[in-house]
């Protein structure tokens, strides 16, 4: 296993999830959806990134190594954050935007911040798929 796979895998997972999100948003809105790039949406980039690393470590080194425990713990925190804290931030942005809509000097806050469980699950599936592809490619399969 080449050491650069640990760097390439999460970057590729981020790229794949971002491209899928852009494509899905463009299809949903029936126009090029550059304005919807960012936090929130299907699939979750954050979930794809952290799950790709958990999966790659599990495939390469097994689940009985310290790196797997660290990656799993980090992924757990990120996934909880994506579903709860960031959704609350988005809900606060909605209320703040309503309260300040009459003031032209106040910048409108991004309201879509968190992810629902389907968006997180889709991100996890993207991450695991990318990790498996990188792992298979590194083995010459």
UniProtKB/TrEMBL annotation:
The keyword Ion transport does not apply. Pfam families: DUF212. Keywords: Membrane, Transmembrane, Transmembrane helix. It comes from the Bacteria. The keyword Membrane applies. The chain crosses the membrane at residues 6-24, 36-59, 65-82, 120-138. InterPro entries: DUF212. This is Divergent PAP2 family protein. The lineage of its organism: Bacteria, Pseudomonadati, Pseudomonadota, Gammaproteobacteria, Moraxellales.
């Amino acid at each position: 296993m080449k050491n650069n796979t640990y760097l390439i895998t999460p970057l590729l997972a981020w790229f794949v999830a971002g491209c899928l999100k852009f494509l899905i948003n463009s299809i949903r809105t029936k126009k090029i959806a550059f304005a919807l790039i960012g936090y929130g949406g299907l699939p979750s980039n954050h979930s794809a990134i952290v799950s790709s690393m958990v999966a790659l470590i599990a495939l390469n080194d097994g689940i009985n190594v310290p790196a797997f425990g660290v990656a799993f713990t980090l992924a757990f925190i990120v996934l909880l954050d994506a579903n709860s804290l960031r959704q609350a931030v988005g809900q606060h942005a909605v209320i703040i935007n309503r309260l300040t809509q009459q003031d032209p000097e106040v910048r409108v806050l991004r309201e879509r911040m968190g992810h629902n469980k389907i968006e997180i699950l889709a991100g996890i599936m993207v991450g695991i798929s990318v990790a498996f592809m990188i792992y298979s490619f590194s083995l010459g399969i």
